[in-house]
Each structure stands twice: as structure tokens, then as C-alpha cells.
Amino acid sequence: MPPRSFWKGYLKLSLVTCPVAMMPAVTEGGRLRFHTLNRKTGNRVQRQYVDAETGKRVEEEDQARGYPRGEHDHVILEEEELDEVALESTRTIDIQEFVPSDKIAWIWFDRPHFLMPDDTVAEEAFSVIRDAMQSTGTVGIARLVLYRRERAVMLQPCGKGIVLWTLRYGDEVRDERDYFDDLREVKPDSEALKLVSKLIGARTTEWDPKMVEDPVQDRLLDLIEGKKKGRKPPRKSKAEEPRESGKVVSIIDALKRSIAAEKPAARKR
User: Fold this and answer.
1) What is the total count of domains within the chain?
2) Which of 71, 110, 160, 231 is an S-S bond match for 226, by CB 3.0 to 4.6 Å?
3) pTM of the predicted model, to two decimals?
4) Strands across the sheet with 16-24, in order?
């Protein structure tokens, strides 16, 4: 049974509107979480806001948002003022634009969510919007308040539903040209290119979610279980760092040895 939706509202395209529900497509619910404790008492510690100058605790009703305009000078913004510049509706995904689906680079994608019709009456309108995007090869762009911030979002058809991606803000994404333009144009040796392609072929396999499992979490669970039973934690063996041999080895020779070493492993798989 799927978990309860964390957001409900409306999907709107011009005069077509339908109720929808949304859930985050990823979860951190299975990750281990630790509490911060007072080592001497074993009690949990609490965080609280204090005045940077007086050191005194600041109650929640006395906390305000401020934009710095000088070292000790801020413009204070009240919640009502912030509400005035926010979206008029926080519960409507109003698709205003469509763009070709292959024109948005992955670097803009932030967080995925599953979007689905909220009742049987909504299914027809929802499916029309979804299938029209699919047939035209486009994705929808809208704005929405999520996680207490206004965000641009992208709607992408996915099977029977739609994946809604929150998109990164323009000032969050750096221009790759600032980093790549100064790199020299290097044309790889044709033989080296063939050998690397062969190495890639030997290591190519089907995608499996097990490839992105977290081995550290498994070791943490073993550590916790061992400490419950009074066992001493095992000593971690140091990983061997790669060392310079002092000899200049050609990339061709290194690749040939890599491929030779790869064959037994490939046969084992």
C-alpha cells in the first residue's frame, strides 16, 4: 500500500483543472539517524537560538528574518510582507509553458516527486495532459510553493503518472564554461581509445539498484548490533594508497594489462 500523499492540490492547464496528489519519489526513511547526547548523563541535547552579542536565549516570537545591508545593519522582513510577494496560490500547479524534454540539462533537476490524479473523476483530464506531453515530446513548466519556498517545477510524463521535478534556481547552477573552456583540446590516441572501449565493454552490464546500495549503513547496523551484545568493534584495515612507481608507464601498456586482468573477472561474472 503506497504511503499517504504529503501534498494535495490541483493540476491546471488553461481551463482544464483536476485534483492531484503528490509524494516525494525518494525517501531517507530507511537511513540510520543518530541523536546528539550529553556523554556524561546520556541525555539528549537541545539546540536553541541565542543572541550573538548577549548570549541570551531568543524566544520564537522574537525571532525575525533580516537581510544584511551592512556589518551590523539588517532590513527586517515580517511574515506578512513575505506573503505579499509569494505566489497567490500554493495549491495549484498551473502549467504556463512547455519546452522540448531533451532541452533541460540534468544539472537543473533538484528533487523528484510522483504526481497522480486524486480521484477517478480526475483521471481523464490528468491522462489527457500526460499523454499530450508524451506525444509532443515536451515537459511542462510551472511554479509551486514546496518546502516553504516558491520553486519552478518541471512535469514529465512517466508511465501512468507524472514525475514533478523541483528545479534549481538560476543562481544555484554554475556555468560549465567557467571550468571547461580553459582545458586543452586533446585528441586521444586511436589505439588507446579502442582499448578503453574494450575495457568498458568488459565492464558493461544491466542496471541494478544494488549498484547504489549503502555498504556503510550495513556496517553501521553490524556495529550497533555488536555493541548491543558487548562485542568490541573490529579494527578497520587501512586502504592502500596508490603509489608512484617512479617509472613512466605508457597508457597503452597500462590499458593492455587492465584488459588482461579484466578477462578472469568477466568470466567469473
Assistant:
1) 2
2) 231
3) 0.72
4) 92-94, 7-13, 16-24, 109-117, 161-167, 149-158, 138-146, 97-100
